[in-house]
Design a protein that fits this description.
The protein is an alpha+beta fold. The chain contains 22 helices and 13 strands. Strand 8 and strand 9 form a beta hairpin. The structure holds adenosine-5'-triphosphate (ATP) and magnesium ion. The site of adenosine-5'-triphosphate has 12 residues, from helix 9.
């Protein structure tokens, strides 16, 4: 590792940066994805500075496959857009450019400036608009954690490290750049990112980060519900859902997201509810590990199932007919869940279907008309399930869910094995793929035809 300020070797990187050469870090330029490398080269050839940055550099140092490649440059968004025909400027709070390829979008950001006065803030210090541009040595202090603040230059095959990010990675440490409470107040979502990276990377948040989260966690309720939904799905559906829930609870971050669920799990840390939620998260983690599509509605149906049962019971006691009790309870529980975190309507509809199918499936196993009936193996072949059940749109997901309930000890395993005859374990193509977030969720409608055609072509 050498500390250098020589511009020949390090472009405009100032003296404080540590430049780490290939011999030490071992990441050759071909480890950067082809599309990202093409964007980087084009920016450089047009006279701009450009680096791969953030998670991709961190993941390569850890020997992991990067999820995506982010690029940072001194070119302004308009200048980037002009260089790439198939690109668009997105975002208001942060304006960034998406360069669009077949099946991949490369995100290009412009170095953020560090002048605190020029950044628009809300009353609690939250950054509301951030389009002040700057240099690399300012940009680095706008990033969240040391491990996410490394810049890689593929031409020189060098890593630029201003904040001892490599040391953080070697120590598996999640260390916030700057004063933790100021940084969490600027953007409370960074607290959820702390939980996500602790789970995903198996890094330990520093004591300051843990303390900062405890101090600032209530600020999360001020974040836009759509952004909280996006980050919550990344946490729970990113492949480390079980570990993410552990960290959410350890940092006491479940409360600002889903207060009722948090309370229930605190009251009964073990038991059926916990077992079911762990089962649903584990099933999701397994599917992600096997590259199978995951359905966010399935996950959310699991998180709130026991809340639903409690609410339904309340209505049943009041002599409300069972079907109506379910509808009322579902309305109540989903409205409660969506108080802080958005739950898109199209997902709420799927959740309702999965929930509604549960009692149907329990009724119709083996012999009809008997609730909570334990079916013995001999009955299986004698009774055909009603066709409207097996043909229901979310039948397979509902059976999977039923089996997770059985696994959690809520009902007999034989109910699960009865329905498994009609709905073997889901594969990749069994059900429509459900997107976690679409433009329609924000009321933006479908992309216009012209854009849709464009987005299939190369950047
Ligand atoms: P992942 O593996 O999930 O993609 P990542 O670290 O690349 O992780 P991104 O959300 O893709 O995360 O963001 C890219 C980089 O942008 C981060 O590594 C970090 O440097 C910076 N960044 C993203 N979100 C924030 C934030 N809320 N506050 C500060 N810096 C951020
Ligand atoms: Mg990334």
């Amino acid at each position: 590792m050498n500390e250098t300020s020589t511009s020949a070797q390090s472009g405009s990187v100032p003296a404080q940066a540590r430049i780490i050469d290939l011999a030490e870090h071992g990441i050759t330029a071909d480890k950067i994805g082809e599309n990202a490398r093409w964007v980087l080269t084009r920016l450089e050839e047009s006279g701009f500075e450009a680096y791969a940055v953030g998670g991709c550099v961190r993941d390569l140092l850890l020997g992991r496959k990067p999820k995506d490649f982010d690029i940072v440059t001194n070119a302004r968004p308009e200048e980037v857009k002009r260089l790439f025909r198939f690109s668009r400027i997105i975002g208001r709070r942060f304006r960034i450019v998406h360069v669009i390829f077949h099946g991949e979008v490369i995100e290009v950001t412009t170095f953020r400036g560090g002048d605190a006065d020029q950044i628009a803030r809300g009353s609690e210090g939250m950054i509301t608009r951030d389009n002040v541009f700057g240099r690399i040595d300012e940009d680095v202090f706008r990033r969240d954690f040391g491990c996410n603040a490394l810049y890689y230059h593929p031409g020189r095959e060098q890593i630029v490290d201003f904040v001892d990010g490599v040391a953080d990675i070697n120590a598996r440490r999640l260390h916030m750049i700057g004063d933790v409470t100021t940084r969490f107040a600027e953007d409370p979502v960074r607290m959820l990112r702390a939980a996500r990276f602790a789970a995903k990377l198996d890094f330990k948040p520093t004591a300051e980060v843990e303390r900062g989260v405890r101090q600032c966690r209530d600020l999360l309720t001020q974040v836009a519900p759509a952004r909280l939904y996006d980050e919550t799905i990344k946490l729970l559906q990113g492949g480390q859902g079980v570990a993410s829930l552990f960290w959410l609870q350890r940092l006491d971050l479940l409360e600002p997201l889903f207060p009722e669920l948090d309370q229930a799990l605190k009251k009964q840390p073990e038991g059926i509810e916990r077992a079911l939620i762990d089962g649903v998260l584990q099933a999701t983690d397994n599917r992600v590990a096997n590259n199978l599509p995951v359905n966010p509605a399935f996950l959310l149906a699991g998180l709130f199932w026991r809340r639903l049962c409690a609410a339904r019971e309340h209505w049943l006691v009041q002599r409300v007919p069972p079907d109506d009790a379910l509808i009322l309870a579902a309305d109540e529980v989903l409205a409660q869940a969506a108080r802080n975190v958005m739950i898109p309507r199209r997902l709420a509809d799927i959740i309702r279907s999965i929930w509604a199918l549960q009692s149907e499936l329990e009724h119709h196993c083996g012999q009809t008309g008997q609730r909570w009936r334990v079916v013995n193996a001999d009955n299986h072949t004698s009774t055909m399930p009603p066709e409207n059940l097996t043909e229901a749109k979310w039948f397979r997901a509902a059976v999977d869910f039923l089996c997770l309930r059985a696994q959690a000890g809520e009902l007999s395993e034989s109910v699960c094995s009865f329905w498994r005859q009609y709905a073997p374990e889901r594969g990749a193509q069994d059900e429509p793929v459900v997107a976690a977030l679409t433009a329609e969720d924000f009321g933006k409608g479908k992309p216009r035809r012209r854009n849709r055609r464009r987005s299939r072509r190369r950047g």
